[in-house]
Automatic annotation (TrEMBL):
This is Protein DETOXIFICATION 53. Belongs to the multi antimicrobial extrusion (MATE) (TC 2.A.66.1) family. InterPro entries: MATE_euk (IPR045069), MATE_fam (IPR002528). GO terms for molecular function: antiporter activity; xenobiotic transmembrane transporter activity. It is found in: Membrane. It comes from the Eukaryota. CDD domains: MATE_eukaryotic. The chain crosses the membrane at residues 28-50, 56-76, 107-124, 174-196, 203-224, 297-317, 354-377.
Length: 406
């Protein structure tokens, strides 16, 4: 009898912890989901306006966006992800100065990365021609990416600022800023593309304007907020003299991971024209390995369910997506086949579908490796490692710990 009562208690206690984790994740995830959907809808709107400019404009703009994602945006996002482990664990350990210095270093790193990316973008046309792209499409792509450089610079500021706020569990200002920017995005596109008759240049400039509006909204929040940590708090002179190795050591694998994930989809588009949870970091920083493990399991399960829902939604509307951008029957046929590509690959010898089958195989492999990592991770060791990263340095004159910043 006692054993049954004990089992019931522990079962109830475990379910209660799972429910608490679900509520905590929902509080964090819902604004992020809304924000991500709205940010991706920026490209959706851009494609709509490009499609109305003609087939050449749509093809050139799509190719340019793909090239920009491969060579620019994925690199910036990956480099910015290097600051996430440091800031998440520093926030859990209440080491505020580490967060501000990490933000400023990441911003400098991203701005430095912009220069070689811009040089590559300005020389995109001969690269596309060498890859066998149509000359007219390559010319349009060059125009689009040239006028996307302001957006690249704005993104270099946006990524570290978003991470800085997200590591403090501050997501609502970003959501509000993105909503405001998206409400203005269609009118701005119309003004630049139709009223000023800028064409493809107007679509690219409208994307840059959108990112600038988001940055402006976040900066207004930081200036007006009396409670949040500000990234410009503290001096900047020591940033250049202190060691950069910890940030760079994290940014390297991060940029590789993000680039591989993005490149899979974007390289697929090029071929047709011829793949962190803040709660885990906070709990590791607070030396709570059990809670970190529970958060990881709950988050992974929710992600799997969300993926299934997204698949069902995409399949149900497979005949609708293409008509928003073009009326070409061949393109519409290929678009409608995307959600069922993996299923039909075994039965039909279709090249386009084969590309998507390869993508499905890559995603399955990635998922299996993530499950294995989740199962075999020693969470106590990870918590100890996080504690070491934020360990106070007795020789430091302030609370900027050597294991992170030197």
């Amino acid at each position: 009898m006692v054993a049954k009562e004990s089992l019931a208690y522990y079962t109830f206690h475990g379910l209660k912890q799972v429910a608490e984790k679900l509520a905590s994740l929902a509080k964090i995830a819902c604004p992020i989901i809304i924000t991500s959907l709205l940010m991706y809808s920026k490209s959706f709107v851009s494609m709509l306006f490009l499609g109305h400019l003609g087939d050449i404009a749509l093809s050139g703009g799509s190719l340019s966006i793909s090239f920009a994602n491969i060579t620019g945006y994925s690199v910036l996002k990956g480099l910015a992800m290097g600051m996430e482990p440091i800031c998440y664990q520093a926030y859990g350990a209440k080491r505020w100065a580490i967060m501000t210095k990490t933000y400023r270093k990441t911003l400098i790193l991203l701005l430095a990365a912009v220069f070689p990316i811009c040089l590559l973008w300005l020389n995109m046309e001969p690269i596309l021609l060498w890859l066998g792209q149509d000359e007219n499409i390559a010319k349009v792509a060059k125009i689009y990416i040239k006028y996307s450089i302001p957006d690249l610079i704005a993104q270099a500021h946006f990524h570290p600022l978003r991470t800085f706020l997200r590591t403090q569990n501050i997501n609502r200002p970003l959501t509000i800023s993105v909503i405001g920017a998206m409400l203005l995005h269609c009118p701005i596109n119309y003004f630049l593309v139709v009223y000023l008759n800028l064409g493809v240049r107007g679509v690219a400039l409208a994307s840059a304007w959108n990112t600038l509006n988001i940055n402006f909204g976040l900066l207004v929040y930081l200036f007006m907020s009396k409670t949040s940590l500000r990234p410009w708090d503290g001096g900047i002179a020591s940033i250049f003299s202190e060691g950069w190795h910890p940030l760079l050591a994290l940014a390297g694998p991060s940029v590789l991971s993000v680039c591989l994930e993005w490149w899979c989809y974007e390289i697929l588009l090029l071929l047709c024209s011829l793949l962190s949870n803040p709660q885990v970091g906070h709990e590791l920083g607070a030396d709570q390995p059990k809670q970190a493990q529970q958060t990881s399991i709950v988050g992974f399960t929710l992600a799997a369910l969300w993926g299934i829902l997204a698949f069902l939604f995409t399949t149900a509307l497979r005949d609708v997506w293409g008509r928003l951008f073009t009326c070409d029957p061949m393109t519409l046929g290929l678009t409608s086949s995307l959600p069922v590509a993996a299923l039909s690959a075994f039965k039909f010898n279709m090249g386009f579908v084969g590309l998507w089958f390869g993508m499905a195989a890559a995603q399955v492999s990635c998922t299996c490796m993530m499950v294995c990592t989740l199962i075999y991770t020693d969470w106590k060791q990870q918590a100890t490692r996080a504690k070491e990263l934020t360990q106070e340095n007795e020789d430091s004159k302030n609370d900027l710990e050597a294991p992170l910043l030197s």
